[in-house]
Structures
1.
Amino acid sequence: MKKHFIILFFSLIIISAYTAETWLSAEYQYGFSFLKGEDLSYESHPDKKAFRVSGHGFNIKTYVFWNNQNIGLFIKTSLDLPYFYNTYNQNYYRHYIGIPLSFGTGVGFRHVLSEKSNIHYAVGLDLNFNLFFTKLKDSNFPKFNTKIYSHQVTFRLISDIGYKYNINNNIYLNTGANLNFAFAKHIKQSSKSDLNNNITSKWAKGFFSFEFLPYFGIGFIINSR
């Protein structure tokens, strides 16, 4: 299902580039997030809360408008910078990697301010995929050495508001903010050691999150009319 979703997602981008006025931009984002509910940690519980100043990553964002209309299609792909954590001491070693990736689509709007500038905004839904790998080693108790594979799928309501300035007929600069509201999350985790193998698969209880991610970027106008 994930494979079919990704193929459909990128097919929309390719088709739109040849049939309408398309804005295609690459952006860097950084902001903060608030989370509530269960996650992958062992001390997780439905009332757990966290505030993070993070969320740095990149977006590939597309707005598509047909027949000179001011309402069209909005498509976004986001890749947060991967997490890499290593913990060492004399007897203990921990290695942690996380890769967050999301795909979203919705309705986009534009408001023309002048010949060179626009305000654009959008609302839609996306799926956020988080893949994690953790490796734990303890030289004193090698039987407790563990490998943990985890992934999360989060369902979110996404929105975008930004300002676009055309350098020329084909290139523009843009800045704005992404706001994401997550309302459901599925967690799956498997751990393997010499002592046991465990698999956990469940919907996170009490889950909710909010992200505010300002961005800036550069874009290209394709097939402008």
2.
Amino acid sequence: MYSDTSVLYFYITGEIAHFGAGVFLLIQLISIISFITWLNECCLSEKYAERCRIHFTLLATTAYVVCILGIILMYIWYTPQATCLLNIFFITWTLVLLQLMTSVSLHPKVSAGFLTPGFMGLYIVFLCWSAIRSEPADNKCLRNSEGSRDWLTIISFIVALLAMVIATFSTGIDSKCFQFRKDEKQAEDDVPYSFGFFHFVFATGTMYFAMLLIGWSSHHHMKKWTIDVGWTSTWVRIVNEWLAVCVYLWMLVAPIVWKSRQVAEEPNK
């Protein structure tokens, strides 16, 4: 039997872990979008625009082909019946979001090209797939056999572990993106990353991994191969997908909005 103090301790640490895991997802999201934006700026720069145009076009085309193929496969695998309305909504809305990102990116005032929405499309298709895979095993819309679910769960566990380590190290090194210190000059004896921010990201990443193990619910009862399985896990990933699209669209539109505001304020000065 646990004492009241132990129960209170586990409750408080569980709530902190929920918050920390959400912070890690947000940091990971900003890091991914920052990388995609940096890659697009390299593509549009004079140094690489002419030399690597074919390579970037091939990358963008491949990204869109994989996105469309992934959406088609999800329709085949996870909507075996017309009654699977929730899965149909998830997949169809992902396709709509992909089209929306492409349309905004190709708008004459934005002109961001095909590469960034293609890569973001890969990210949201992956989030949609992982969200559907996180649905409970008793869901009739999941046609995969129990055996295939077992090894896919093992692979997902390993991928999640690698993603946590990579995201922790990448965001820890690129901490200036989150600390508003890009313009500061770095001394010769300075390390290229922040120790404090690195450990903060690693701590939130650990909280995120703990949430995967309990399916984002402290009342989740572990069964065989139930890592990151449950409706809470599904909706966390779906909301993360929608938030990713919102942040990406804002990063495309924000410069235009700020520029129009500055132009509107100049006559009043």
3.
Amino acid sequence: MVGPMPERADAIVVLGCRVLPSGRLTTAASRRAAKAAEAYLAGVAPHIVTSGGRRWGAQIEAEALRRALVRAGVPEQAVTTELWSLTTHENAVFSAEILRRRGARRVLVVTCVWHVERAIRDFRGVGVDAWPLPSEGVRVGALRRVYRRGHELACTWLDQRALRRAHALVRAVPRPDPRGSGAPSAEENTR
């Protein structure tokens, strides 16, 4: 799927996942935050984007991840939150805009091992030079692995469908005439 992780990147994106209603991170979210903080503190990238707008009670994924990163020693000004996405595909779309505005080209994406392949595909699909930085996985039984694989296949299909629809919408938007008014020039009228 991908080569070795780059030694340096312009940014790290941490994908959101379930947060407890109390605001505490789940094991998966804690591992993602820890991996991102470790990379940041090692000087791998100067900035982190926490991505995830899903609410769990009063808690928003990206905000909970930001708080965990700051507690781990990442300066608050080094973290940007992306609060609109509800899916992996939307994580990629909305984070890509933040990354472009910051001038970030090479990006490390932090998520669970079983989720990283789809996440990288989605980020690359929206033009981000994305590289995986998977958090440590939790050992699970065979039934859970089968469920996760099925979930990833279904979500991949949905993400690809959403991407095709987005491309169709972009192609359907009328483009301004590069010559200016859109009307034919005097030269064109005489031909």
